[in-house]
Amino acid sequence: MEQQLKNDLLLRAAKSLPVERVPVWMMRQAGRSDPLYRKIRQEQNLPLERLFRTCPGPDSHTDVDLAVKISLLPKRIGVDAIIVYKDILTPLASMGVHFRFNPGPILNPPIRNKQQIDSLKPLDDPHIQLAYTGNVIHSLRETLNDELPLIGFAGAPLTLAFFLIAGESPMKKGKGISEKAKPVFKMMDSEPDLMHCLLDKLTELTIHYLNFQISRGVQIVQLFESIADVLSRELYETFALPYHQRIFSAINSLTPAILFAKECPYIDMMHQSGAGVLSIGKCLNLKKVKSDIDDTIAFQGNVDNDILRDGSFSDITQAIHTCLEQGGKVGHILNLSHGLHRDTPFENVKHFVKIAKSL
Question: Which residues, other chains included, contact 161 with Cβ-Cβ below 8 Å and sequence gap of 6+?
Answer without folding.
Answer: 184, 195, 198, 199, 202
